[in-house]
Amino acid sequence: MPNRSLLSALASAFLAGEASVEQVIARASRTLGRPWRWLRPLAQRYLKAHAGQTRPRRRDVIRFLLRDRGFHRARSEYPHELLVHQWLTGPQKMQPVAAAAAWTVPAIESAADLANWLLLTQEEIDWFADLKGLGYKRKDRPKLRHYHYRVLAKQPFSIRLIEAPKPRLKELQRQILTEILNRIPPHSAAHGFRKGRSIRTFVAPHVGQRVVLRMDLKDFFPSISGARIQTFFRTVGYPESVADRLGGICTNAAPRDAWNFHQQSQAAVEARAMYARPHLPQGAPTSPALANLCAYRVDCRLSALAKSVGAQYTRYADDLAFSGDEAFERCVQRFSTQVAAILREEGFIVNHRKTRIMRQGVRQHLAGLVANQRLNVIRADFDRLKATLTNCIRHGPETQNRAAHPSFRSHLDGRVGFVESINPAKGKRLRTLFNQIIWT
Questions:
Q1: Backbone angles phi, psi at 260, to 5 degrees
Q2: CA separation (Å) from 361 to 128, 336, 364, 372?
Q3: What's the predicted TM-score (pTM) here?
Q4: What is the tens place of the pLDDT at every residue in 275-293?
Q5: DSSP structure class, residue 284
Q6: Is the dihedral of CA 414, 420, 423, 425 positive or negative?
Q7: CA distance 293 to 270
Q8: How far apart are CA 4 and CA 61, in angstroms?
């Protein structure tokens, strides 16, 4: 078996610089001290094995070399001559996949470059990225952790952990969001967490359709693993050392004592296990954009599936909507099964309790809006808001602030503004009531 230093040196040569046969041969020849004849077919096999894929990890390259028969033949023929002549210690260059070549993201080619870009030392970068999971293990020093935790439990099936990053980590995440993630376009079917998109644009394509299919993804953010985020950053073109640290900064593994309740239901046990693995934290500024970008492939597949049956497809975070005419209505049940299968293949799980097939004879509602004949707010929601405004006029706004909103006026103003954006006529009636409230 080849020695570890030879494997590691060749892996460094294969990973550095541009991914072309001549470049790989040149770097491998420098590493081995001479241009061996068997290097060209080896380089060709290596590039063919990883063509069109994300930049591989070092361990993947080593695994390729261990399995390559040509390399083993060369090793057996030249057991004493095949040695490491020179280590390539320079930083690896950016190697984005073809689709990412036009993205204007900053070039960061080493851990040192990443530290300079974030204005930190390499030790501080490693502490924030926490690739060894030390934050998960620090049970006696919670102040050293990077997140605040809050459990939201809805009996008996839904448990959610809100993970809010502390100020310094949040600042780093915002820089990654602004200068990297916001420069990468998500799929056109994604309407959540995007400038110029909203639940209005999410629902609008489904207005007046004969049948609407609504599906919901279970545990959308935590189901996206840390390894998947690191792979995404390698897709963008970053070397493994940079991609792993960027992924570590944007993900988290929640410690066991973050769960401040002792529920022993099956849902609680599954939630603890899921959040204990590195995942996208719900509460980090980078998580919505990363979730959209990691769902790009599933959006492509579902858009193509919907197009094949003449249906429309949009997604708002974990809410999926499909709609179509009579042809879609005839196959909608089978179609929903195909969607669930695709989602499972892509690492997502459908919350089947929330799947709804809504025909024209019932209220077709998506994300709190009605889509039957025209876009509208749900009547019950409108009536409740109207009653709240009326009671504020009669009895004073302080009597209606039962949820103890710190700025109840802004809260009501926002709710009225939302109705105005969906149904201007109804919004105008609510605005008239809002303007009659006497605020002290």
A1: -90, 35
A2: 54, 20, 9, 9
A3: 0.86
A4: 989 999 999 999 999 999 9
A5: B
A6: positive
A7: 26
A8: 13
> Which ranges of 102-212 does DSSP label H, i.e. alpha helix?
111-117, 122-129, 134-137, 167-179, 199-203
Token pair belonging to 363: 């209220």
Q: Which two structure tokens, joined as six digits, stand for 431?
A: 């605005």
At what angle are helices 226-236 and 287-294 packed, to 10 degrees?
Answer: 80
Rounded CA separation 396/389 (Å): 9
> What distance, in Å, lies between the first and last C-alpha atoms of the chain?
81
Longest CA–CA span in the chain (Å) reads 95
Which residue from 313, 309, 333, 332 is spatially nearest to 321, judged by alpha carbons?
A: 313
Q: Is the peptide bond before 156 cis (omega within 30 degrees of 0)?
A: yes
Q: DSSP per residue over 337-388, as a string?
A: HHHHHHHHHTT-EE-GGG-EEEETTS--EETTEE-SSS-EE-HHHHHHHHHH
What local confidence, expressed as pLDDT, does residue 1 receive? Answer: 46
Element containing residue 274 per DSSP (H, E): helix 266-276
pLDDT at 141 over 70: no
Q: Is 180 helix (H, G, I), strand (E, B) or coil?
A: coil
State how far the Cα of 38 lies from the Cα of 25, in Å rounded to an integer.
10
Confidence class of residue 338 from pLDDT cuts 50, 70 and 90?
very high
Backbone phi, then psi, for 321, in 5-degree steps?
-135, 135
Q: How far is the C-alpha of 237 from the C-alpha of 401, rounded, in Å? A: 50
The span from the CA of 210 to the CA of 205, in Å, is: 12
Q: Where are the alpha helices (DSSP H) in 2-38?
A: 4-15, 21-32
Residue type, 29: S
**Per-residue DSSP letter, 325:** S
Q: List Cβ neighbours of 52 (8 Å cut-off, separation of 6 or more).
A: 97, 98
**Sequence-separated (6 or more) residues with CB below 8 Å from residue 108:** 94, 114, 117, 238, 242
Helix or strand holding residue 313 (H, E): strand 312-316
Number of Cβ atoms within 10 Å of the Cβ of 405: 11
Reported as a single tens digit per residue, the pLDDT across 107-126 is 999 999 999 999 999 999 99
Res 13: pLDDT: 86
Structure tokens at 132: 């060894």
* Nearest-10 Cα torsion for 381, 386, 391, 397: 80
CB contact at 8 A, 221 and 323? no
